[in-house]
Design a protein that fits this description.
The chain is α/β, with parallel strands linked by helices and 309 residues long. It has one domain: HAD superfamily/HAD-like (Rossmann fold, 3-Layer(aba) Sandwich), CATH 3.40.50.1000. Helix content is 45%, strand content 14%. The chain has twelve helices and seven strands. It has a seven-stranded mixed beta sheet with strand order 4-3-2-1-5-6-7, sandwiched between helices. Helix 3 crosses helix 6, helix 4 packs antiparallel against helix 5 and helix 6 packs across helix 8. It is globular.
């Protein structure tokens, strides 16, 4: 009897210690109700011994995408500042790819997303990394949502692996995203290409983290079902449905009613669909800085809708 009592006491002490080892920090800018939901969920994961994984979309979910996607701005900036000043076959070929992308116009469509990889092929991973890093510091510095940074800090406190998915070429995003969140570049997964002898190629390695490809990317590269998934757009629906626990939707659109091609979201806006599904909907401030001049504007790429908080 005494032995049973000691075992029970030891189990209680172990559980109490584990629960109190994690310290949830209030996320300023979100309501008490939202914080209570997140805290309660994180507390419920304390005794989980296997991998605890959280996966987030990148643009529009972790940092601002207004008025343009960073992936586009980085490419058009590089074209204006570097390629247009050269007169060689490589530069002419790349500018033709951009012309094709502009004619396409659908910068969330598969051909356009693949052409971002084709445009950057022939450069080293380090060169691509610095194109993204330069663009981030010149035009997007400060656009990471403080609420999402606080959330991810809490997740790390509770022992979660944090993964960021983007349909953009992953070398373009890995350096600045990993630095902002304090995670490994390996945990920033984007459109991948084959690298040969230190040079990137246009040979894309599927799946691309776009639409249903985001769900396939979780299975293929992360290899664990996430307990938390965060997204912001129609393209994140399949990924969000991979969550075994909490679904977080940032600044969901409540204007466009989706059509039959959007499957279960048909007849709903992104916001009303996820309200129906019981997701946690949060707001983060995403508006244009009038003092920043974007190269993308001159290439006449569509703007993203602002989300003032």
């Amino acid at each position: 009897m005494k032995r049973i009592f000691l075992i029970c006491l030891l189990s209680f002490v172990t559980l109490f210690t584990a629960v109190n080892a994690q310290q949830y920090n209030q996320i300023d800018g979100w309501s008490k109700e939202t914080n209570d939901i997140i805290r309660s969920f994180l507390d419920s994961t304390v005794t989980i011994s296997e991998r605890k994984v959280a996966v987030f979309d990148c643009d529009g979910t972790t940092f601002g995408q207004v008025p343009y996607y960073l992936a586009d701005e980085a490419l058009y900036q590089y074209a204006d500042e570097v390629l247009k000043n050269r007169d060689d076959d490589f530069s002419r070929e790349k500018l033709l790819i951009l012309d094709r992308m502009v004619r396409d116009g659908n910068n969330v469509g598969k051909p356009y997303v693949e052409d971002r990889v084709h445009f950057l092929s022939g450069l080293t991973p380090g060169e691509i990394e610095m194109i993204g890093y330069k663009c981030y510091h010149e035009s997007y510095k400060g656009k990471f949502y403080p609420e999402m940074k606080a959330l991810i800090a809490n997740l790390k406190e509770y022992g979660f692996e944090v993964w960021i998915l983007t349909a953009s070429p992953e070398q373009l995003y890995q350096k600045f995203v990993s630095e902002e969140f304090g995670i490994s570049v390996i945990n920033v997964v984007g459109a991948k290409c084959v690298i040969k002898e230190g040079i990137t190629t246009g040979e894309i390695i599927p799946p691309i983290p776009q639409d249903d490809g985001k769900a396939h990317t979780i299975e293929t590269f992360i290899k664990a079902r996430p307990l938390i998934v965060g997204g912001n757009s129609r393209g994140d629906m399949d990924m969000l449905n991979e969550s075994a626990g909490l679904k977080i939707v940032v600044n969901p659109d409540d204007v466009t009613v989706r059509g039959p091609e959007d499957g279960p979201m048909n007849g709903y806006t992104v916001k009303t669909y996820w309200e129906k599904e019981g997701a946690l909907i949060v707001k983060c401030n995403d508006v244009a800085d009038p003092d920043i001049k974007f190269h993308t504007k001159e290439w006449k790429i569509r703007t993203n809708r602002p989300n003032p908080k």
